[in-house]
């Protein structure tokens, strides 16, 4: 059974995962109306779906452990961006925030000697290592490209390859 404190913390994480899904959906929508960024739009569509899966995994875990998972009300995410570079900077910032929150949860689970929750959270720890690496890689690539249109074209064309390479799926999806 989850302690009240851990249940509340897990529900906060659930809300953060839901907010991430919404933020990435907003990035998808922004990229979708930009000329030549369909690959980026598709990338953020997949990212949004993935974050929703993370949220649902938490929801099920909280309820399975005798807690009550709360479906959160969400604030409007950022919906417009000055540039593609800003989108990916926000992507990295968001992933770092999620990692910090997961680390806090792991620490809390250990302090409460809730080893089941500690074990459950290890999947999120591993997932965040991949997500941070992916976000950093894509930011680095955009930094190298700068404003070069042909580089941006190739970045958009190959972005799903980067996502699949980072997740270790070799092009088979995440």
The span between the termini is 31 Å
Number of helices: 5
Shape: elongated
Mean pLDDT level: 93
CATH H-level superfamily: Ferritin, core subunit, four-helix bundle
Order of helices and strands: HHHHH
Residues in β-strands, percent: under 5%
Uncertain residue segments: 169-174
What's the number of structural domains? Answer: 1
Q: What is the CATH architecture descriptor?
A: Up-down Bundle
Helix content: over 70%
User: Rg to the nearest angstrom?
Assistant: 17 Å
In total, the number of strands is: 0
Please describe the topology of this protein.
Elements: H1 4-32, H2 38-64, H3 84-111, H4 115-145, H5 149-166
How would you briefly describe this protein structure?
Pfam families: Ferritin. This protein has 174 residues and is mainly α. Helices cover 76% and strands 0% of the residues.
Can you characterise this structure?
By secondary structure, the chain is an all-alpha fold. It has one domain: Ferritin, core subunit, four-helix bundle (Ferritin). Helices cover 76% and strands 0% of the residues. It is built from 5 helices and no strands. Helix 1 packs antiparallel against helix 2, helix 2 packs parallel to helix 5 and helix 3 runs antiparallel to helix 4. The longest helix has 31 residues. The protein is elongated, with a radius of gyration of 17 Å.
Highlighted features:
174 residues; mainly alpha; Ferritin; elongated; disordered C terminus
